Amino acid sequence: MRFSIFLKVAHNSAALQGKLPLDYRQGIASLLKAVLKKKAPHLYRFFYHREGHIKPFSFAVYFPDLRGDEVVEGDRAERKYLKVGSRAICNFTFADEIIGAQVLNAFLAYYHSRQRNKQRASPYGESRPLSWHVWRKQWEFEITHVRLHPLRRIPGERAVFYTLSPFLVNTQGEKYLYLTPEAGDAFREGLQFHLRELSQHFLGRAYELNWAQCDFSRLRPVKVWHYDQYMTANRGKLVLAGPAPLLDLIYRAGLGVRRSQGFGMLEIWKLL
Q1: pLDDT average per 10 residues of sequence, the chain (272 residues)
Q2: Which of 90, 181, 196, 227 could form a disulfide with 216 if both were Cys (CB 3.0 to 4.6 A apart)?
Q3: How many whole angstroms separate alpha carbon 260 and alpha carbon 157?
Q4: Where are the beta strands (DSSP E) in 164-260?
Q5: 198 φ, ψ to 5°?
Q6: How far is 33 from 3, CA to CA, in rounded Å?
C-alpha cells in the first residue's frame, strides 16, 4: 500500500524560513510518531516498543522547490541546511496493507482534527490556532492533503527499479559500515542477509536475489547526514532478479536497512 502526505513547512525564524537541516528524515519520522501517538497508539507501541521488530514500511521525501543547500553557521554538517521552500511530499509504502490502511486513517484523523479545531480557547479566555506538528521546537509541518496511490504488483522475476530514497547496506556485525556495489562480495552478502531476514519475517520463507541476473552498475554512492554521522547510501537505477514474491515485497517494504528512517523506498521503472 502506498500513499503520499503533502506538507507545508514553516519555521519560526525568518533566517531559516524555507530551509531544513540535512537530517530532515528525522523530522518526518517525528511527525509519524506524533500522529500514531495521538490517533493510533496501538500502532505506535507495535512499531516502537518491540525491540528488534522489523518494521513493515519505508518512506521517501520529495521537495518540489529544492534549490540546493547552504551553510548557515560554520562549516559542519549539522550547520548545513537544504533550501527546500515551503512544500514537502512524503511518500509512504507498507508491506502490510492492513497496517498501511490504519496508518493512513491515523493521518486522516489527525488532519481532520486540526481542520475542525482551527482555534481553541485557553484558560485565560483567549484563543489561538491549534498547532500542527512542531519538530525541534522550530519547524512546523502542516498537512495540506493526502493522496492514496493505486496498488501495483510484480508478477515476474525481474524488474528495473529506481530509488525514491537511497538505500543502505551493511554487514552483520558491522552496524555502521555502509557498503556500495564496489565492495563486491561484502555488498552481496550484506544485501542478501537483509533480504533473507525480511522475507522470512513477512513471507514465512527466506528468499534471495538471483545475483547473476541483477545489475547495480547504474547506482551511484551518495553521502547522507543522519543521526550525527555521514552514511554512504546508494541511489539510481538497479535491476533486481529473483522470486516474484521477494521482488514484490521489496517494492512494498523497501530495500536495505533503516527503511523506517526514510531509506530504501523504490519505484518500478519497468518489468522485464
Answers
A1: 96 89 95 96 92 90 88 63 95 96 96 74 52 90 95 94 97 81 95 96 97 98 92 97 98 97 97 92
A2: 181
A3: 26
A4: 170-171, 174-178, 219-226, 229-241
A5: -65, -50
A6: 17
Neighbours of 69 (CB within 10 A): 15
* Helical segments of the chain, H only: 25-39, 41-48, 97-116, 185-203, 244-253
Minimal CA–CA distance to 232: which of 190, 267, 199, 193?
A: 190
Among 150, 149, 157, 148, which residue's Cα sits nearest to residue 248?
157
Q: Record the pTM.
A: 0.91
Q: Which helix (H) or strand (E) holds 58?
A: strand 57-62
Question: Measured on CA atoms in the order 91, 48, 258, 214, is the torsion positive or negative?
Answer: negative
Q: How far apart are the first and last CA of the chain?
A: 22
Q: How far apart are CA 97 and CA 270, in angstroms?
A: 23
3-state secondary structure of 242: coil
